[in-house]
Amino acid sequence: MASASSSAAAIVDKAGAPLAGAKSIVLLHGPNLNLLGTREPEKYGTETLDDIVNRAKAQASSMGIKLDALQSNHEGVIIDRIHQARSDGADAIILNAGAWTHTSVAIRDALLAADVPFVEVHITNVHAREKFRHHSYLSDKATGVIAGLGTYGYVAAVDFAARYIKPKAK
């Protein structure tokens, strides 16, 4: 069974109705990121995944953007959500693929098929770590790559994506 968590923040008008034409971003977290806050805090810090998602949602909301977040330790769940981002008309994807960054042609192919701009995010500077972490199957196709900014990298990614994507037609 997939251990996935998902949450969305909708942008609404003063009456609480969904705002037409709002931009949308899908934020995806790969394997082991559910352990943030307790897993190797000297590398990844003490913020939990919920803390990170809440900060990213607050940043998105302040910019008039709907943000949907999902974490899974199962590659197929992430691929399915990338496909769904395409069919939902998402404007951008922000992805911390974790270890799949260095191994997954399947996630690369899903991102290419989805044809949605994406930002690759890493909490640590992967280029200052073990040699096998220096290669990414995603970076050469990403609109942008953020690494080594700690958990602030997610806020930076939301900010960049919001400025990069164009408003939907009314």
TrEMBL record:
Q: Which domain of life is it from?
A: Eukaryota
Task: Report the active site residues.
Answer: 44 (proton acceptor), 122 (proton donor)
For biological process, the GO terms are: 3,4-dihydroxybenzoate biosynthetic process; quinate catabolic process
User: What are the site positions for Transition state stabilizer?
Assistant: 39
- Which UniProt keywords are given for this protein, alphabetically ordered? Lyase, Quinate metabolism
Question: Which Gene3D superfamilies is this protein grouped with?
Answer: Dehydroquinase, class II
- What is the reaction catalyzed? 3-dehydroquinate = 3-dehydroshikimate + H2O
Q: What pathway, per the record? A: Aromatic compound metabolism; 3,4-dihydroxybenzoate biosynthesis; 3,4-dihydroxybenzoate from 3-dehydroquinate: step 1/2
Q: Give binding positions for substrate.
A: 96, 102, 109, 123-124, 133
Query: What GO MF annotations does this protein's record show?
Result: 3-dehydroquinate dehydratase activity
Q: What is its EC number?
A: 4.2.1.10
Q: Pfam families per the record?
A: DHquinase_II
Physiological role: Is involved in the catabolism of quinate. Allows the utilization of quinate as carbon source via the beta-ketoadipate pathway.
Give the record's subunit note: Homododecamer. Adopts a ring-like structure, composed of an arrangement of two hexameric rings stacked on top of one another.
Family listed: Belongs to the type-II 3-dehydroquinase family.
What is the name of this protein? Catabolic 3-dehydroquinase
**Which species does this protein come from?**
Tilletia horrida
